[in-house]
Amino acid sequence: MSNPTHTPDEPVSSSRPSTHNKTLEINLNSAHYGTFAEIGGGQEVARWFFHVGGAAGTVAETVSAYDMTVSDLRYGHADRYVSRDRLHAMLDFEYRRLVEELDAKRGAKTAFFVFANTVATRSFSHRENGHGWMGVRFQTQPRSEPSEIIIHVHLLDVEYDREQEALGVLGVNLIYGAFYCHDDPRMLIESLVDNLARQRIELDMIKFSGPAFAGVDNRLMSLQLVEKEFTSAAMFMGTGEVLQPSEALYKKPILIERGSFRPVTHLTLDMLERAQEQFLQEPQVHGEPPVVLMEMTLRNLSAGGAIDHEDFLARVDLLSVLGKTVLVSNFGPYFHLTEYLTRYTQKMIGIVVGIPSLQEFWNEKYYTDLRGGTVESVGRLFKNLVKVYVYPARDPVTEKVITAETVPVNGPMAHLYAFLLEDHRVEPIRQYNEAFLSLMTKDVLSRIQQGDTSWETMVPPAIVETIKKHKLFSSPTTLPTA
Q1: How far is the C-alpha of 358 from the C-alpha of 363, rounded, in Å?
Q2: How far is residue 340's CA from residue 274's CA, in Å, rounded to a whole number?
Q3: What is the per-residue DSSP string for 392-439?
Q4: How far is CA 389 from the centre of its chain?
Q5: d(Cα 63, Cα 135) in Å, to the nearest integer?
Q6: CA 224 → CA 204, 327, 330, 455, distances in Å?
Q7: What is the pLDDT along the chain (482 residues), one digit of tens a residue?
Q8: If residue 193 lies in a helix (H) or strand (E), which one and from where to where?
Q9: Is the model's pTM score more than 0.85?
Q10: Cβ neighbours for 176, distance < 8 A, ≥ 6 positions apart
Q11: Is 362 helix (H, G, I), strand (E, B) or coil?
């Protein structure tokens, strides 16, 4: 095991305590007492508490069920040992056991906690980046109902011992945050990377629950992970339940539509539904139900560089009414999106766009950081099993319908685009509602804000009801609408 010390590439901020000092502060505070359960590669967190001294005041027990059979005997059988389900089984078992055995003796004066993790790190047989689940269940006061924080982490170091070091620091940060920052979840999230260079880990899921976090909206917490660049994207279901991306995307075909969804219109949904009909007919999909995602990028959430959280929740609430799974990302070009998705699946990926977005594909200004410019971006976008489905538009001047086959692409890119059409990498959406072609999100939003009730015919009835009930989008905000 690695020595839990502060490494040179992790400078301690003058405003943040070191990992050593965090651990020692917890040990010297007799208010908290609990169990550490670590299986798989994550054996480093309890080690910090023994290393700094004073652990007798904090540690009731440490458990390292490293062998799978032993782990099953203690926590029950698991199909996947590095999973959210396994983490919950660990927290449930250890917390119940801790309270049952120690409540009579210490319960009146002690706030109990359980820290657990299940992690796969690099090894002689496993050369891929490590990842794992980590959580803490804790009382804020003696004999209070417990609260809980769980996270999912990707380990990005290329050396096994460096992954272990990062796990140890992250675990201490999580426990410290639960004890001392639970009344400020935003600060708690920021503190998770204290004393860690951010290129060492990726945090792509966090969930708060219990009485300490009664007012916390986990969708906003997911957004903060992306805002702070702890991850490139975060996911949650229409119910508001946060997802770790592999839980939803692993080995699944994916269909995704990017937009502002401010608000969702008949056109928004028709694009997605008609594309899905064609997607299911693809030989590579074999009729397998795809994961359908609605993606919002930070660019579509910001005004003057700041994220409007109220506006974000308004849009998410509308997508929730429709039962849609949301992906919030910091991706710019579409190839960044497909490269992210192929981390989780080798199945077919369908991207749904309109004519304006298709035309933006060819704008060189988006690819100035690529040596190959637009050509490189197209190559990276279609490197894997990716197809773009294009919904037509109506020319505002001629009123003619523009399709993927008739949209003008000028200059040298015209030949490349012709090839993509011929190779069926770009596919026109053939069944569409011509009455929707004149709908523009910007126009619908303007009518809402002006009190012009004609907008109600432009969006699905469930969306109309939600917008009116909660008075969504009633105040003008300068945000992108594309």
Answers
A1: 10
A2: 25
A3: -EE-TTT-PEE-TTTS---TTHHHHHHHHHHTTSEEE--S--GGGTT-
A4: 25
A5: 15
A6: 10, 13, 11, 32
A7: 445 544 435 444 457 899 999 999 999 999 999 999 998 776 789 999 999 999 999 999 999 887 788 888 898 988 888 899 999 999 999 999 999 999 999 999 999 999 999 998 876 556 678 899 999 999 999 999 999 999 999 999 988 889 999 999 999 999 999 999 999 999 999 999 999 998 999 999 999 999 999 999 999 999 999 999 999 999 999 888 999 999 999 999 999 999 999 999 999 999 999 999 999 999 999 889 999 999 999 887 775 567 888 889 888 989 999 999 999 999 999 999 999 999 999 999 999 999 999 988 888 888 888 898 999 999 999 988 999 999 999 998 899 999 999 999 888 889 999 999 999 999 999 999 999 998 999 999 999 999 999 999 999 999 999 999 988 987 655 444 44
A8: none
A9: yes
A10: 22, 23, 25, 26, 191
A11: coil
**Structural domains of the chain in order of their starting residue, each with its CATH number:** 19-216 (3.90.950.20), 246-470 (3.40.50.620)
